[in-house]
Amino acid sequence: MYELKRKTIRGGLAKLCGQGTSFVLRLGFIITLARFLDPADFGLVAMVTAVTGIYGMFTSAGLADAAVQIIEITNKQVSALFWCNILFGAVLSVLCLATAPILVSFYHEPRLFWVTVVMSAGFLISAAGTQHNALLQRELRYFLLTLIEGFSELLGVAVGIGMAIGGCTYWALVGTTIVSQTTRTGCLWLSAAWVPAKPQRTAGIRSLLHFGGTVTLNSLIVYVAYNLEKVLLGRFWGADVLGFYGRAYQLANMPTQNLNSAIGGVAFSALSRLQNDAVRLRNYFLNGYTLVLSMTIPLTIFGMLFADDLIEVILGPKWMETAYIFRLLTPTILIFGIINPLGWLLLAIGLQGRSLTIAMVSAPLVITAYVVGLPYGPGGVALAYSSAMTLWLIPHVVWCLHNTMISPWDLLRATSRPFLSGIVAALCVLGFEHYWSKLPSAILRLGLGGGGMFLVYICMLFFVLGQKTFYRDLVRELRGNPLKGTNWRSVG
To answer: What pTM does this model have?
Structure first.
């Protein structure tokens, strides 16, 4: 059991470092391309990805999660799942090709045709590496996975920036995606050193297909719910407006997306191994949840208070219309930080059906909010979206945790200290706003004002509220020098 804990913590560290690197790469990519491309270029690609992203939900078909969640799996089963993924990928590529003229007609934009055609290849490419990725996840080889993802993204970003400098406009965004997908799949094949066998009908994957189908349907509903506003804005307000909204949405989504990618896969793998040990599963989950929230809270406050300066530094002056949209979207950073880990828990303990039901209830609420805010432009959509998610937060948490080994009070106790630290840090920044807001440059305001906020937050969390020991022990685990007698108990 200690070996599982050690692999989990070290895997989490590797993923956190990898996602930190990924965050820097993506941020640098956005900063660079914002200087070479126009909002309409981003809007054109967003018109395609908002629709074709739905197909992407079926590339894995939830079969990677199924392969990780099951306690034991045979080579025949993995091979059968691989060929299922290939079949899904091929069908989706053809479907994407057929969608190209439909998108041109819907958006009245002929340039979308070839963008859609080129991006259709990505479905088959990604499908070919799905089970190799799952095999590495089962073994908790997250350091290797982090290297693969980092190298793939770095190569894609380098190609994209080169294309942008060379005047390829929106094709730079397309090139980045295809190069990253191809590199990632190739590295996964080399690293897993696994070659699929011929598919056999006796592989016994019916239960895995059922699990994967439920997960895929859940992901599909969630994707549609959280991306339909981009389709609506592109259709009724045009590529420029969608470009501004899309950049704001991407920046607001990056913190939770990176944390979810960094910790989610590791947590799901570890919790799945502990699904028959309720006590340890509860402790693992609450500690991981506390870690996620302790990082999400200051990022939310930072984004809300320094939105104008962030946009000026990251995107540049011509993107300042994005700032107010970004500020309206910042509450969702914290909301998704709260609810995303609950999804890991439900899937790990086999409650994927409940997760699907919750998604089917929440999706209409969010879509209704988009429709209400659409007449008021991107700001109206952003405000309506954040408001709907805020109202849905408590019912979502209570429903997820109903009749599980974790109660809402457990979450409240585990996260009360990070929340209190965040409140104090925000009040301190607002109290000194008169001074830092008069600094002559946005970089100085971010450095001094934001740096002061993070310093107050850390001091409150570590020293005033006594969380230094929890994080110190975590660091010792990462270094392979655990304290004797410690049980990694929940901070709650």
So the answer is: 0.68
Contact 268, 68 (CB under 8 A): yes
Contact 417, 461 (CB under 8 A): yes
Compute the mean pLDDT over every residue in the chain, rounded to the nearest whole number: 82
215's enclosing H/E stretch is helix 206-237
Quote the CA–CA distance of 309 and 22 in Å, as a whole number.
Answer: 22
Mean pLDDT of 253-271: 72
Q: Under DSSP, is residue 27 helix (H, G, I), strand (E, B) or coil? A: helix
Task: Give the tokens for residue 328.
Answer: 């309206």
Other CB atoms within a 10 A radius of the CB of residue 70 amount to 15
268 token code pair = 């799901």
How far, in Å, are 25, 195, 269, 370 from residue 377 at the CA level? Answer: 30, 51, 41, 10
**pLDDT, position 306:** 92
Task: Looking at mean pLDDT, say which of 9-13, 58-62, 119-123 comes out highest.
Answer: 119-123
Residue entry with tokens 């929230």? 293
Q: How far apart are CA 149 and CA 188, in angstroms?
A: 9
pLDDT at 479 over 70: no
3-state secondary structure of 440: coil
Distance CA 22, CA 261 (A): 10
CA distance 282 to 280: 5
Please state, in angstroms and rounded to a whole number, the distance separating the CA atoms of residues 144 and 57: 24
E strands within 191-268?
A: none
Question: Could you give the CA distance from residue 300 to residue 314 in angstroms, rounded to a whole number?
Answer: 17
